[in-house]
Each structure stands twice: as structure tokens, then as C-alpha cells.
């Protein structure tokens, strides 16, 4: 092939590729208050928390990083956006968004729900049936995981694997890929953190094999590896009393038999006592090994190659509870193209994550300096505040460690270690 022909083929491939990529939903909140016309708040409860459009306390780009933030503590939040319904039959579907827990979240959801198109958006609530729930969920030290829940035949099924979520204050990109070959992949920050098959990692279907209910261990099945040696007999001098009168005990001089009764020496353990006699153990010549219950195909099981399939995907919703508010959701994408999602992730989260991290670092450094100065002033004050100062110095040390962690390349690993340490305490 000549050079021009090669270029031609590449050009055709690019056209085919871009024609095939379909973005069903994309929301980056780039047009001011207009998002209010696209998102519908649920009216199911009267006291849902308010969503605020903001880039937060620190960001990579003051405009592009604007997203929906939970703004009131200890509230339920419920809002959703509709798009043209589609089926993922025979195609991958990718669900992706960013979450920023800039408030140092203690307990609260950071996940999305994907609904069938017939969802009543103003009535949306925790019981509204959804197709997919995906994203981070944090509560205390014990719950820090990524949910991947699929609805199958009317029932919600949770993933059996534990996927750890990020628990720092920066923006993170969460991606779920669901493939028509019934495999899936979860990515955080465009790195794969979990993958596998629907059938293995969820309990959608009954077990393929079950123990044969007809099979029973034969009565004469001998599964004793060792038996008593029949030739072994108890030695004649084996039986000795467990306790004997203390031979060294003496009747006290002042013992008065009329008053105290007949004197008896105290009992002590008999050094010659050998305990209960047991015959020697020998290999059982009739040993057949442990009996294994034979398995048969489960008559209840039937394969289903459509577990992954959802007929009319049409709404993306945020339906969650937060104790400490401040989480910002942004950069929602639903597409049938894995590479397109990665591209969009790179263009959005990928482009602003570094300046965001820097801005946070500067704020942290500044706060640390202010705290240090405050402490210095306090040090010159009266001695009776000694105890308090010690507390504050300890806090300061912790802050220093935190910011050190933030500077390191692998915040995930550091976080994991921290969590583990705390769990162990
Ligand atoms: C996204 O960014 C990463 C890291 O820079 C890069 O390795 C990857 O190829 C990018 N993906 C796409 C689809 O451009």
C-alpha cells in the first residue's frame, strides 16, 4: 500500500469510529443556571437537601469544574435528568462521572442510579426501581466501597467483590463498563480496579451444580483414618487414685479430737495418677477416605446471556443521603464507547486534576502556616495553657503527615494503609 492509501484507510477508520461512538448523555454544567431545566428534583419528600452549582473550595478550572454540590448536612438528596431512551443490547455501555468529597466526608453516598425511561422523576425515591447503581459509598471506617448493583428480573443484586473507593478530598473519576459478552470493568481515575464476569461476581442465577439429593453416604462407608488398637490392653497397675492424703501432713499439736473431730490429712494430687487409659491409635485398614457428596446439574439453573441487557435506559439520578454535605458531582457521561468515555474523562477530570491538587496543596500549606503562627503566639502565653498546647502540637503533626501523603504519587496506597491501620485499632 502506498502512503496515501494508508492515510486513506486510517481516515476511513476514524470516520467509522466516530460514527459508531454514541454518547447518550453528557452533563458538565457549563451553562450557568440552565441545568435546572434539565434536572428534575424529586418532590417525594418535602425536606430534600438543596443542590448548589459550584466548583467548590479548590478546583482546576473555576468554570469547567462547576458541578452539583450537596449543600445541607444530614439530608436526603434526589434529582434526575432524562435523555433519549436506548437499549444496550449487543453493545457496551459506559457510565462515568466525577465525585469530589471536598468536605472530608464522614458518611454519605457518592453514587448514581440509572433508571428505565418510565421513572416518575418528581416521585423518585429510595424505592424507585432502577437498572444500575454505581459509585462510591462511605460511612465511617468500615464502609468505603464502590457499589455495582444490577437489577435482574426485578431484584437488585450487589457485587460480591469488595471494591475500595477513594476517601480523600480530591475529584475522582468513576467508570463502569458493561459489555454484551457479560463482562464488566470498574475504573477509578481511568485505571482498572476491578473486572470479571457478571455470572461469577454476582448471584444472578442459581448455582450451576448442586449436591445430588439422591446420593447418600453408604452405611458401611468407613471414614475413620485411625482406630483403637484392639491388641493394646490396659496395664494392670494403671488405675491409681487421682488424689491421696498428704503423707507429709501432721496432726497439729493442739488438735482436740473431742472438739475438732477425728483428724484427717488434707488431700493432694497423686503423682502416680495416670488419668484415663486410652488404647493406642493405629491406621484403619478399612479407611476409605472422606465421603464426597456427588454433584449434579442444578435443574433450577438455566444460562442467560441477557443478564447485561437493559431495554429502555432513560434517566440518570442522584438519590442519596449525606451526613456531612459538600460532595460535588460532575462530568456525567453515558456512552456505548469505552474509548470515547476515556477520552472525555481525560479532557475533563484529566485536565483539571493537577491544578486542583495544586490549589488544595497551597490552601493546606497556608492553613498550616497560620496554625503554626497561632501556636507560637500561644506558646508565649501563660503556663497554665500547657496542656492545650500539647494537644495542638499533636494535631499539627497529624496535619503535616496528611499533607505529606497528599504530595505522594500513590494516594490510593497511602489511603489504604491508613484505613487498614485504623481498622486494626
Ligand atoms: C488518557 O490519558 C492517559 C494518561 O495520560 C493516556 O495513557 C490514555 O491513552 C488517554 N486515553 C485516551 C483515550 O486518549
Automatic annotation (TrEMBL):
GO terms for cellular component: cell surface; cortical granule; endoplasmic reticulum membrane; sarcoplasmic reticulum lumen. Its main location: other. SUPFAM superfamilies: Concanavalin A-like lectins/glucanases, P-domain of calnexin/calreticulin. GO terms for molecular function: calcium ion binding; carbohydrate binding; unfolded protein binding. The keyword Nuclease does not apply. InterPro entries: Calret/calnex (IPR001580), Calret/calnex_CS (IPR018124), Calreticulin (IPR009169), Calreticulin/calnexin_P_dom_sf (IPR009033), ConA-like_dom_sf (IPR013320). GO terms for biological process: ERAD pathway; protein folding. It is found in: Cell surface; Cytoplasmic vesicle, Secretory vesicle, Cortical granule; Endoplasmic reticulum lumen; Sarcoplasmic reticulum lumen. An alpha-D-glucoside binds at residues 111, 113, 130, 137, 319. Residues 213-253, 353-379 have a biased composition (Basic and acidic residues). Disulfide bonds join 107-139. Residues 213-259, 345-425 are annotated as: Disordered. Residues 1-21 form the signal peptide. The keyword Repeat applies. Transmembrane segments: none annotated. It holds the Pfam family Calreticulin. Keywords: Calcium, Chaperone, Disulfide bond, Endoplasmic reticulum, Lectin, Metal-binding, Repeat, Signal, Zinc. Belongs to the calreticulin family. This is Calreticulin. It comes from Scomber scombrus (Atlantic mackerel).
Amino acid at each position: 500500500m502506498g502512503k496515501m492509501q494508508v492515510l486513506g484507510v486510517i481516515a476511513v477508520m476514524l470516520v467509522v469510529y466516530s460514527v459508531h461512538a454514541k454518547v447518550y448523555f453528557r452533563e458538565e454544567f457549563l451553562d450557568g443556571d440552565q441545568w435546572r431545566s434539565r434536572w428534575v428534583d424529586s418532590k417525594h419528600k418535602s425536606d430534600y437537601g438543596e443542590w448548589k452549582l459550584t466548583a467548590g473550595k479548590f478546583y482546576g478550572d473555576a468554570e469547567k469544574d462547576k458541578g452539583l454540590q450537596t449543600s445541607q448536612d444530614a439530608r436526603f438528596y434526589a434529582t434526575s435528568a432524562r435523555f433519549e431512551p436506548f437499549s444496550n443490547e449487543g453493545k457496551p455501555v459506559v457510565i462515568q462521572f466525577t465525585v469530589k468529597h471536598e468536605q472530608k466526608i464522614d458518611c454519605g453516598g457518592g453514587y448514581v442510579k440509572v433508571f428505565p425511561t418510565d421513572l416518575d422523576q418528581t416521585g423518585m425515591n429510595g424505592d424507585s426501581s432502577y437498572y444500575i447503581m454505581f459509585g462510591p459509598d462511605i460511612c465511617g471506617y468500615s464502609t468505603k466501597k464502590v457499589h455495582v448493583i444490577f437489577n435482574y428480573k426485578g431484584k437488585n443484586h450487589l457485587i460480591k467483590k469488595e471494591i475500595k473507593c477513594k476517601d480523600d478530598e480530591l475529584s475522582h473519576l468513576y467508570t463502569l463498563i458493561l459489555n454484551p459478552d457479560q463482562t464488566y470493568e470498574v475504573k477509578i481515575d481511568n485505571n482498572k480496579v476491578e473486572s470479571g464476569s457478571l455470572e461469577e461476581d454476582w448471584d444472578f442465577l442459581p448455582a450451576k451444580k448442586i449436591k445430588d439429593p439422591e446420593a447418600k453416604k453408604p452405611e458401611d462407608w468407613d471414614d475413620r483414618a485411625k482406630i483403637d488398637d484392639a491388641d493394646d490392653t490396659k496395664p494392670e497397675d494403671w488405675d491409681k487414685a487421682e488424689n491421696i492424703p498428704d503423707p507429709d501432713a501432721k496432726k497439729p499439736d493442739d488438735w482436740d479430737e473431742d472438739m475438732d473431730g477425728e483428724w484427717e490429712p488434707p488431700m493432694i494430687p497423686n503423682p502416680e495418677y495416670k488419668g484415663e487409659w486410652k488404647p493406642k491409635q493405629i491406621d484403619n485398614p478399612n479407611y476409605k477416605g472422606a465421603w464426597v457428596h456427588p454433584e449434579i446439574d442444578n435443574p433450577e439453573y438455566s444460562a442467560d446471556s441477557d443478564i447485561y441487557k437493559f431495554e429502555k435506559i432513560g434517566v440518570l439520578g442522584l438519590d442519596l443521603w449525606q451526613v456531612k454535605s459538600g460532595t460535588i458531582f460532575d462530568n456525567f457521561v453515558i456512552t456505548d464507547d469505552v474509548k470515547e468515555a476515556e477520552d472525555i474523562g481525560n479532557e475533563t477530570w484529566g485536565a483539571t486534576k493537577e491544578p486542583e491538587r495544586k490549589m488544595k496543596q497551597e490552601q493546606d500549606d497556608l492553613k498550616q502556616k497560620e496554625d503554626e503562627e497561632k501556636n507560637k503566639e500561644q506558646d508565649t502565653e501563660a503556663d497554665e495553657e500547657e496542656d492545650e498546647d500539647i494537644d495542638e502540637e499533636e494535631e499539627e503533626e497529624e496535619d503535616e503527615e496528611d499533607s505529606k501523603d497528599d504530595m505522594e504519587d500513590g494516594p490510593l496506597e497511602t489511603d489504604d494503609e491508613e484505613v487498614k491501620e485504623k481498622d486494626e485499632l
